[in-house]
Amino acid sequence: MGSLPSEAEQYERIRTTVFQSAESAVRLVAASIARLMWKRAAEGRTAVLGLATGSTPVKLYRELIRLHRDEGLSFSNVVTFNLDEYYGLPPHHPESYRHFMEVQLFDHVDISPENIHVPDGLISRSEVFGYCQEYERKILATGGIDVQILGIGRTGHIGFNEPGSGVDSRTRMVALDRLTRRDAARDFRGEENVPAYAITMGVGTILEAKELALLAWGESKAAIVREAIEGPQIDTVPASFLQRHPNCQCYLDEAAARELTRFRFPWKVGPVDWTPSLTRKAVVSLASDLHKPVLRLRDEDYAENGLATLILETGSAYSLNIRIFNELQHTITGWPGGKPNADDSNRPVPAVPGQKRVLVFGPEPLDAELGMAGTLHRLRGHQHEVTFAYLTSGNLGVPDNEARMAISLLHELSADRPMVSQGKDRLELLSDELEKKAAFDEDSRVLRQFKGLIRKAEARASCQVLGLDPSKVLFLDLPFYEKGRYRQFNAADEDVTAVRELCRRIQPHQIYLTGSGAEPGSVSGISFRLVVSALEECAGESWMKACQVWLYASGERPWSPHEIEMAVPLSPAELAVKLDCLYHHRSQRSQTPFLATQSGESWQQAENNNRSTAQHYDRLGLAEYEAIESFRCHKDAESRFS
Ligand code: GLP
What we know:
By secondary structure, the chain is of the alpha/beta class. The chain has 3 domains: 15-122 and 139-174 and 210-235, Rossmann fold; 270-331; 357-399 and 448-641, Rossmann fold, CATH 3.40.50.10320. It has 25 helices and 17 strands. The strands form 3 sheets. A 7-stranded parallel sheet has the order 1-10-9-6-2-3-5, sandwiched between helices. Strand 9 (211-216), helix 7 and strand 10 (248-253) form a beta-alpha-beta unit. It is globular and about 75 Å long. The relative contact order is 0.10.
């Protein structure tokens, strides 16, 4: 390590580099691992790698595989130790970490099987302690781990060291946190299928590696990443203990870094260029912190809260307050498609054309509804031509019991009514496939198709509530999703082509999409990128030049008013319509009612987000609405960190 942190990094206790994308970050990490491997090979020694699982390192492994294939990087001198394994899963289980590592890395490189170490999830309970000690002895016998790759769980775990894990903890058996199990529920097709225990290297074991590389992508990690990097070292956030390591480096994409002080409050870490967006951010956060409406902020409020330079540069609190108040006011519109025949100089959407072609993309069914069902309803009510394109079928998100119910219904129907009897064979095939598979098994092709139909039926019903024209509700069933599974999606040209051709056919005046801050390997992260690629290919076309591209908020967190460029208020009645629409996605309700009461169903979260945005506007001194859906321009979102 070496140089001291820069002024901007002064709050950070782990050396952190922020990259524009996960791809650029992993190229750097992979290159440094490759250098180590080449150096060791030249010396006739082994390189010992500590490996992690989860979505985060997937791109890193793909880059290592590329280096192996294209640049002759050999793994013949590599020994690996994985951090953890689910307890109770056999190695061939599709969700076991052993299987994950084989599919993601080992099967594609020339590593010797005897050099691979992944904790054994089937070790008998009485042997676990001795087994874990032996795992540590094996690490020591190799001379210790040279580089340990780490992801971070939303609980702040590294490996499976959940909150409560001490800094001296060693390799052992642990119980998984509720949030961790919930995050793994999709992989296991239901929270109830996620193992309750795991074997993991301890925090102390991890800290003994010579070098640590902590990776995190996507805004869902931003809050915990900040705690780990800037917070106190505390066992409620085990990743914070990485601060103790003399050679730990953190690699983030912009979305995962967004809560770090240098991005969240850049004026706290040094002089800043007071751009319009940064100014708005500072005023909104000052008003929010002081619980004051914008128009009541005084010069002293700015001066006493580290914003004296802002007042110096803008003259006075009085003029600044009015300017920001007006900016916020102008984001609010009940006319998301533009208000015909009105002065639009201070409106987010142009008045012309009065009737617009609108194209809304939903990564999976329910995503767009959570973000903008009220706005969709309004756009339709204002007679715009709305096309709603579901990019993927979402079949992986349907629990078996939903499929079972639908099959039972069809069985009854086919017993009574001969006209559907030709469908009977298919029905029996479905029934058989469903019943013969174990709870964790992957679904067959037919079963996935059937589950996709369930989601389509739900989606159609929910669109009906919004008054959308059924012929304009499209299901693209993009191949990347149909061919893949969670953590293993690979978008290709055919996906981009399908989106591009739809855009060209519709030539929309407005496009709505989501996912700019999502984890890059997630369905919404992949969907975002491929829509953006498709739009880039259309860049020169006349319709595209006039097209506004709006991002809607994901269900993850409410946006602060300073991030919002269009705020669409919902009346109590419109909020009720939105909820009615959301409820039709019944297969997506939590499968564990107990957990649902802890963290809320997705529709409750969307309702809370929309209400809390409205309350935030209200507290800033703007009008008081029941709920607000929020949007920002795609272009501006891109440059937020520049
Ligand atoms: C998992 C693993 C961790 C991983 C973390 C984050 O449960 N045990 O090693 O870092 O959770 O997972 P992801 O990368 O999918 O977000």
